[in-house]
Amino acid sequence: MDTKSSSSTRPILKSRLHALRLKLGFEQDWYMLLVAGLIGLVMSGVAILFIFPLRFIEHWTGQADRSLMLWLVPTVPILGAILAGLVHYIIPGHGEGPGVTKVMFAVHRKKSRIPASIGLRKWLASTLTIGSGGSAGAEGPIVTIGSVIGSTIGRLLHANPQSTSTLLGCGAAAGLAAVFNAPIAGVFFVLEIILRDFSIRTLTPIVVASVIATAFTQSVLGNETLFATSATLSVEPFTWREIPNYLILGAICGLTAVAFIKGFYSTEKAFSRLKVHPILRPAIGATLLGILGLLYLVLINPDNSLPGFYGNGYPVIIQLLDPEHYFTDSSLTALKPALAFLGVLVLLGVLKGLCTCLTLGSGGAGGMFAPSLLIGASVGGSFGYIVNTLEWAPSASPAHYALVGMAAFVASTTHAPLTAILIVYEITRSHEVILPLMLAAVISTIVARLLYRESIYTVKLTDQGVRIGAMSDLTILHRLSVQDVNLDPAVSVHVNDSAESLLELSERHHVGDFVVVDDDKHYVGMVIYSDLREALVYREAIPLLQVSELMREDLPTVTPEELLDQVMDKFSRYDVHSLTVLSDPKSGAISGLISRSKLMRLYQNELDKD
Q1: 501 with 360, same domain?
Q2: Is the pLDDT of residue 511 over 90?
Q3: Pair (162, 115) in one structural domain
Q4: Percent of the chain with pLDDT over 70
Q5: Residues 188 and 303 reside in one and the same domain
Q6: Minimal CA–CA distance to 135: which of 379, 414, 409, 371?
Q7: Packing angle between helix 139-156 and helix 116-131, nearest 10 degrees?
Q8: Are residue 132 and residue 267 in the same domain, yes or no?
């Protein structure tokens, strides 16, 4: 009796679980949550192993005396670049561009499949580049490494391309979240920049991986923010009188970001044209970096610390986010001497941008995110210092402008304002400046996109014919209607005409699809090219056929107000080249034909605009 009872409850339980999976959207891939958790756990360990060597090198160089620093600054970057060049030579990669660009190329052109060797190559080369003083960040490499791990796991599980893309995103988000201690920003970086997909099926596993990676990394490295600074304290409430200041700062960041993007890819092209072995190109860039570092150390830097534009630049960012940095030691109301201090601030941002171009443009490995944060902090701090010096309207501390400048510059280089706002907020925990962060980030993105359509990650993709819009495909099709498409004129035939008339019309008008009308010139069906071509196999029977015998009445029609996502769905269900557009479906009045090719051409044009 008990056996029968238990056997009867199993189908019920199974059906309820089946219904639950359907409601949650995990009927086919519910296991993704478990795999995402595993990826998060793995990436926490990878992030710790990746961070520790860089932190150790940073701590060791901070204890070197000035005489040793004068030797280390010009020579160590060259040595690191040579070793990184050897890594690139021994472990060859592909030419799609920097790390995040490679990941995006894999998502959009290779079904999210990235060779495992790319992860090892990026890990070794970026550690050598950043650890030796190269001007680059750690976020690009850890995103690439995480993407490789997620892609590899997807292949091992024989996942379909969509699931592999999600697992790739899990690895990328988990890596970024663990390094920056910013799980929300890690999620949105992947959704907004790499995958461009905010669906619940994609979002849920990525959130799981990001949270688990952050939690385990925090248990080892602690819960401190990446930029622990007093800028998070004693912030005056944001008022409407400060809006003009942040509008101007956003515009300035947008302008400088465009200059940085163009400068980077001009530098990359210049180095690619050098007739030297690829191994030596990073060393040439490192040599120029070393010369600039030595000049900065001798002429400007009074102490024996590493030049601020070396490495990831985090210590300098922490300094720029400290309100006391901008005032004299004896007073928090008296600013430091104007011209000299402002000159150093501006020079720091210029040198960081130039040295990042030299390091990464010559073939060094690393990310763009950390350099963008430092350049943005320099631009914002300089602007805030000028505002305070001129006593121009109500203003906050220059440190707060530096914080806002970080978000604005990152937003304008990546064209991802949401990610920029969240990551700067999470790594500083300064909720008091969230409103100016949002305003400046959006303005800077608008300015940058008006001046230059491509972001730092998409320029190389565009050169290879990969066009990525600023929104998802579905959103583009949702906001366009049939009225936006140039319609083809409809060539009409009467339902009782001979099939021979179709051949004459085809030769005269060079068309293959015909609209069939009744005596009142109203739509009754279509004759499509493929059906006409099949009839021509028996050409001797054509004079005996009528249009009504070749006509298809099952094809849907569309209206001028119909959205293109609905039209695309009709094209997918009926394999035809054209559909009839009716200005009045009740009467059957015909406006023209909408073709699949013109719809797709409009879609591609909208991608270019975005």
Answers
A1: no
A2: no
A3: yes
A4: 83
A5: no
A6: 371
A7: 160
A8: no
The whole-model pTM stands at 0.78
Q: Kindly state whether residue 471 falls inside one of the protein's structural domains.
A: no
Q: What's residue 62's pLDDT? A: 58
Instruction: Count the Cβ atoms, other than its own, within 10 Å of residue 5.
Output: 8
Report CA-CA distances (Å) from 421 to 59, 150, 204, 436.
29, 26, 21, 10
Among 98, 147, 92, 150, CA closest to 121: 92
Rounded Cα gap, residues 566 and 564, in angstroms? 5
Residue type, 381: G
The CATH number of residue 561's host domain is 3.10.580.10
Same domain, 334 and 258: yes
Q: Report the SS3 class of residue 452.
A: coil
Q: Which residue has the higher pLDDT, 237 or 461?
A: 461
Last residue of a domain, one of 466, 498, 527: 466
Supply 151's token pair: 């892609």
pLDDT score recorded for residue 233? 42
Tokens coding 249: 């700062």
Q: What is the pLDDT of residue 261?
A: 94
Alpha-helical (H) ranges within 2-138 are: 2-24, 32-61, 66-90, 99-109, 116-131
Instruction: Give Cα separations from 308 to 77, 136, 316, 324 (angstroms).
Output: 14, 12, 6, 18
Q: Are residues 87 and 12 in the same domain?
A: no
Say if residue 454 is in the same domain as residue 398: yes
Residue span of the structural domain in which 522 resides: 476-609
Count each helix (H run) and each strand (E run) in the chain, helices first: 24, 5
Looking at residues 302-317, what average pLDDT do you find? 79
What's the pLDDT score for residue 544? 72
CA pair distance 589, 581, nearest whole angstrom: 9
Phi and psi (nearest 5°) for 589?
A: -70, 135
Q: What is the crossing angle of helices 398-414 and 434-451, to 10°?
A: 40
Determine the Cα–Cα distance for residues 555 and 570; give it in Å rounded to an integer.
9
Both tokens assigned to 516: 């069939």
- Picking from 234, 230, 168, 233, the residue whose alpha carbon sits closest to that of residue 202 is 168
Let me know if residue 207 belongs to a domain: yes
β partners of residue 327: 335
221, 240, 266 - which closes a domain: 221
**CA nearest 363: which of 292, 426, 273?**
273
Residue 21 lies in a domain: yes
Beta strand pairing call for 492-494 and 514-517: parallel
Partner residues linked to 578 by β-bridges: 595
Spell out the alpha helix ranges (H) of 190-233. 200-221
Assess contact for 231 and 437: CB atoms under 8 A.
no
- Give the C-alpha separation, 351 to 339, whole Å: 18
Is residue 480 a contact partner of residue 584, using CB atoms and an 8 Å limit? Answer: no
Answer yes or no: do 265 and 316 share one domain. yes
Instruction: Please tell me the total count of domains within the chain.
Output: 4
